Amino acid sequence: MTTAEKIPNAYNFKTEVKQLLNILVHSLYKEQDIFLRELVSNASDALTRLHFETLTNRDIFDPDAELAIYIEAPEVEDDQPKRIIIKDTGIGMTKDELVTNLGTIAQSGAREFLAKLESDEEIDPTDVIGQFGVGFYSVFMVADEVRVFSRSYKKRAKAAVWVSDGSERFTVETAEKPNRGTEIHVTLKKDAEEFANSWKLKQIVKKYSDFVRYPIYVDGEQANEQESLWRKRPSDVTEEDYKKFYQQMTMDFEPPVAAIHFAADAPVNVRAMLFIPAKREPGILAARKEPGVMLYSHNVLIQEYCTDLLPDWLNFVDGVVDSEDLSLNVSREMVQNNRIVQHLAKTVRGRVLRQIKRLAEKEPEKYAQFWQEFGRVFKEGLATDFTAKEEIMPLLRYPSSKSDGKLVSLDTYLENMAESQEEIFYVLADDVKSAGRSPHLDQFKERDLEVLLWVDPLDAFLAPMLPEYKGKKLRNIDDAGLELPDQPETETDDDQKPELAEADFNRFVGKCVTTLGERVVEVRESKVLKNSPVRLVSPRDAQNREMDRIQRFMDKDYQAPKRILEVNRRHPLIADLAHLVTSEPDNPLVQLGIEQLYESALLQEGLHPNPADMLPRIQQLLEIAAGQAVTEPS
Ligand code: ADP
Ligand code: MG
Fold first, then answer.
1. How many Å apart are CA 92 and CA 97, to the nearest integer?
2. What are the phi and psi torsion angles at 333 (to 5°)?
3. 458 vs 3, 383, 407, 427, 608, CA distance in Å?
4. What is the mean pLDDT of residues 500-515?
5. Does residue 403 lie within any of the structural domains?
6. Which among 197, 260, 299, 481 is most buried, taking Cβ atoms within 10 Å?
7. Last residue of one domain, picked from the residues 205, 222, 239
């Protein structure tokens, strides 16, 4: 081949691709062999795309070619650079597609990949390149020059060849290629010559591409297992197999949380191997690009992303479902309305849920991690799929006032309930710590009753949808009418605390009423507070009060809702303020104190419109306290 001075049909790589290539060409990476994984993965994608084309289109070029991948290391003269060739009989690319797909399309993946390398020095690019949709370029880690010959499945399209040495630009021109698909000729760098070796190539195929669903021939011999792992009996499949299969299917390099492998013959034939991934968000461009599972029949893929088998709130589950009862030429719409698919869906849904439940029971710590990642998906499921309540509620987990940071299920809660307890209690808060400080908990702590801490904003949103569980009502403990079982005999160590005289207390309550005015429904004595001076409770008939907290986030003109202010008569702060009302009713501390108590309670409830508004008052209170500390040193 000649290299012309003036290059015809030359195109510049997009800037971000140029940068990416610059890195790949000039650095030495330990896992260079992943270039083969990426090329094989592209070949496999191209074959799958062709396969789907043939389902609806008979008019394709070279219809009888076997769907397969061929890797060759041709013999070369000693003084010649070594080469390898990767061929597929997939969908191919036209000349224009070569230009766009391999260099001129804007590549957000390349930019993200570069940003990732920049942000994390430790990272090995070979670990992540496949996840950014730029896998093809990894070939330049090992290549001095790459030629991509391709012929599209479209009958009238001519074959073309793409050539580049991985620097500034590439060329694309028409070429001769008698058969369909893509053929990549890689001229190896001197230090990558080890790859031009059948044995080595087979080893790499085995390592990364064993379960690719098309045969991969290395110098004429099939090198991948290509078996349907899901058709084996679960007892014949090892943990390692599951991991490897999952990895090759998804290119997600975090092992799955669980593999769900089962077979059934009635009411419908099914062999399935499904996985719960570790993360909700896969790598931006992981191999599986959409939710849904792969639907097979008789070992043939009929739908790559089938979403009709599992509800939306389980669509993070990935894997294979294979049924011999499905006919091979079902189209997309037919899949949806197919009775067999409906049977399949029922079976698959049941099995997946059973497995998740088992995980929750047998491996609570693993489940807690899973919950961190997917709990919200389930909660969204509750909000959107009314039929799923029975299935989802047992899977819910919350921290509780007695669980020490651990998560408890509603069932565990029921088991631990006091005998006389009739309801499931929960308190809303922004986080576990502030929930722990809630004045509503006073009486529960005293009676050693457990309260669920609903600290996810979604919990407040879901509250109206969860009126009860297994016959027990769920009850927000900010409720004014709440009556707890067996009130303990009152007054223990409190007996010593001076009781505030009736008249003083009433005067203080009156002062609260005049100070707070319209902002509260009522001010009254609390029967339950222990260590907190005041709290805000909801009037008995308050509707959907959980939504108030959510309004705060959503509504610009949000105003704090009206609640009942309950005052703890035995609290020393209240006693001091009440005495002050009696002795010096006009002391500014009285009003400041009442305002601050009220707003602190709002804040505690997550209802304060703007906590920063409290700062000037806090400053004033500090000034008074400091002034007193100076004039009356103790
Ligand atoms: P990704 O595979 O994530 O899309 P790549 O950089 O690996 O990213 O490939 C870029 C694009 O080039 C592919 O999306 C595809 O359109 C095209 N391509 C690469 N290899 C082949 C091939 N063997 N056959 C057909 N098209 C291919
Ligand atoms: Mg790719």
1. 9
2. -65, -35
3. 64, 9, 16, 13, 18
4. 94
5. no
6. 260
7. 222
Nearest CA to ligand 1 atom 13: 101
Hey, whose CA ends up nearest to atom 27 of ligand 1? 42
Work out the burial of residue 49: count CB atoms within 10 Å of its CB; fewer than 13 is exposed, 13-18 middle, 19 or more buried: middle
pLDDT-derived band at 243, boundaries 50, 70, 90 = very high
Whether the per-residue pLDDT at 331 is higher than 70: the answer is no
Domain count across the chain: 3
Nearest residue (by CA) to ligand 1, atom 18, is 42
Contact 85, 183 (CB under 8 A): yes
Q: Whose CA is nearest to atom 9 of ligand 1?
A: 136
Distance 514 CA to ligand 1 centre (A): 73
Residue found by looking up tokens 């005999």 in the block = 489
Residue 87 in any domain: the answer is yes
Q: What is the mean pLDDT of residues 120-137?
A: 76
- The verdict on 297 and 361 lying in the same domain is yes
Q: Which residue has the tokens 């069932």?
A: 411
Ligand number with the minimum distance to the CA of 87:
1
Out of 88, 101, 185, mutate this one to test ligand 1's pocket (max ligand atoms within 8 Å of CB): namely 101
- Residue 454 domain-assigned? no
Q: Do 595 and 614 share a domain, yes or no?
A: yes
Of 16, 24, 41, 42, the one to substitute when testing ligand 1's pocket (max ligand atoms within 8 A of C-beta) is 42
Residues 260 and 208 in one domain: no
- Give per-residue pLDDT as tens, 454-470: 999 899 889 988 999 99
Residues lining ligand 1, Cβ inside 6 A: 38, 42-43, 45-46, 88, 90-93, 101-102, 133-136, 182, 285
Q: Which atom of ligand 1 is nearest to the CA of 42?
A: 20
Q: Are 289 and 345 members of one domain?
A: yes
In a domain, 374, yes or no: no
Return the DSSP state at 389: H
Question: Minimal CA–CA distance to 35: which of 163, 160, 150, 125?
Answer: 125
> Distance between CA atoms of 576 and 587, rounded to whole angstroms?
13
Q: Do residue 170 and residue 309 come from a single domain?
A: no
- The average pLDDT across 66-80 equals 95
- What is the domain extent for residue 358? 229-368
Cα 194 from Cα 187, distance rounded (Å)? 12
Instruction: Tell me what pLDDT residue 151 has.
Output: 98
